[in-house]
Amino acid sequence: MATNNADSLVEIRNVSKLFDLSQSAIDQLLGREAQPVRAVQNVDLTINRGDIMGIAGESGCGKTTLGKLLVKLYEPTEGRIMFDGRDMSELLREDQREFRERVQMIFQDPFESLNPRMTVFQSVVEPLKINDIGDGYQDRRERVVQVLNDVGLAPAEAYLNEFPKELSGGERQRVAIARALVVNPDFIVCDEPVSMLDVSIRAGVLNLMKELQDEYGLTYVFISHDLSLIRYMCDRTAIMYLGSIVEQGPTDDVVNNPKHPYTEALFDAVPEIEPGAQRRRANVTGEVPNPRNPPSGCRFHPRCAKIIPPEDWSGSQDAFRRGCNFKRRVQTDDIPVEEIAEEYAEQRRAVDAVLETGLSLELPDEHQIAGDGRGTVDIDSLDLPRQAENALRSATRDLLEGNEEDAMEQLDRMFNSICERQSPELRQSGDQVTACHLYGSSVANRETIAPDASD
Ligand code: ADP
Ligand code: MG
């Protein structure tokens, strides 16, 4: 089967991976359908020969699951993956064997990937035996010695009879790399390969991986939550959020000119390399939602600093975002309305208190601004249009009277966004591809809404 791109080695087409497809006890009790974990959702990605493709994103966003799909440790629930022009799920027996040689994975924890009861020699020779490579013991031993030298475990003879527990973390990871390399693969998925290693030896292992890439003609997928490593290692980078790729492109573009608000927020959290460089505004709020029940529309919208107001919104971007946060908190019962009602006998005061709490942003600690710190905000400091403030006050009175339905209806009418309604498609913008309504057709040519100065 031909691929549409001669340079591509791996093509991931609309791949999803769901876990826990059966109904849980809770699902049965509530009489609802199973709520699987959507670990990877509708991922499209092309990996070119000779590239290092970075996969970045917060813990739990699906990086490892995607990596395991690429080496066929998992089968996709939907979609397909093409390796060198062939559909991985349709490999014949003979092709499967070839595939197992050509595709390897290096895991985060070398202690887990190495059998503690096997010597270095036994660990590294094992893939040769399994794949029936090499001409007898002597040939295999030579191959093992060669690859150990290549990964910097020299002289190899000194390592052959060691057990994993006798090695340092860095040496163990080098053995794991040797084990992957010994079958002479084309493609290696490296899942956080240095995150368990001492910081002082990381650079050595990373540089080794780069050298091996040239020497062995490898294509890598390099998975990391550490953006400075991604910057250092990868030609291209894909940013994942809650199972989906939100942006991808040449690493330089993704890093220096991020288009997706999530990418921006991620790089915000990384200390700038150059001292004195201005840090971008902190703009991500709240926690990563549950992948069993991801938000509608753009999955990032509940945390996004740039959530798009309707055409007729006359206030600031910040005020709109706070209003949306308020709505979401009402939906999730996150505002302690009853407590506040008990504290303030006078309804007007109670309304103020609910709004002061509900309209504050849940910024991560390091980005909390003094005065906003205890999770309340001065309503007058927000540039809320009168109509919006009226809707908020009226909805809050409904809440205080226990009428959540009417409250939600008013909030929905005032604070509605395309980001909540529609899932954005990946679209070309600049040199990267971004899934964000700011770059979608309906708001094309519209300048990114100017950041508001109120915080
Ligand atoms: P990452 O590597 O980015 O931290 P993972 O791919 O490990 O993310 O996990 C993505 C999501 O899928 C998480 O919510 C995780 O709890 C869930 N998950 C991963 N593996 C399994 C599994 N075998 N069974 C059920 N859920 C899983
Ligand atoms: Mg992981």
Looking at this protein, list some descriptive labels:
12 strands, 455 residues, 4-stranded antiparallel sheet, alpha/beta, Rossmann fold, binds adenosine-5'-diphosphate, 8-stranded mixed sheet, single chain, 17 helices, disordered C terminus, binds magnesium ion
Structure notes:
- The chain is an alpha/beta fold and 455 residues long.
- The protein folds into two domains: 227 residues, 3-Layer(aba) Sandwich (Rossmann fold), CATH 3.40.50.300; 108 residues, no CATH class.
- The chain contains 17 helices and twelve strands.
- The protein has an eight-stranded mixed β-sheet, sandwiched between helices.
- α8 links the parallel β7 and β8.
- α5 packs across α6 and α6 crosses α7.
- The protein is elongated, with a radius of gyration of 26 Å.
- The structure holds adenosine-5'-diphosphate and magnesium ion.
Structural class: alpha/beta
Helix-strand pattern: EHEEHEEHEHHHHEHEHEEHHHHHHHHEE
Highest CATH level, the class of the largest domain: Alpha Beta
Alpha-carbon distance between the termini?
55 Å
User: Mean pLDDT across all residues, rounded?
Assistant: 87
- The shape is elongated
Helical percentage: 25-40%
Poorly predicted segments: 272-282, 366-374, 442-455
CATH architecture descriptor text of the largest domain: 3-Layer(aba) Sandwich
Could you tell me which ligands this complex binds, including any ions or cofactors?
adenosine-5'-diphosphate, magnesium ion
CATH topology value of the largest domain: Rossmann fold
Q: How many β-strand stretches?
A: 12
Percent of sequence in beta strands: 15-25%
> What name goes with the CATH superfamily of the largest domain?
P-loop containing nucleotide triphosphate hydrolases
Q: What Rg do the Cα atoms give?
A: 26 Å
Helix segment count? 17
The largest sheet is: 8 strands, mixed
Placed side by side, the strands forming the largest sheet appear as 6-7-8-3-9-10-12-11
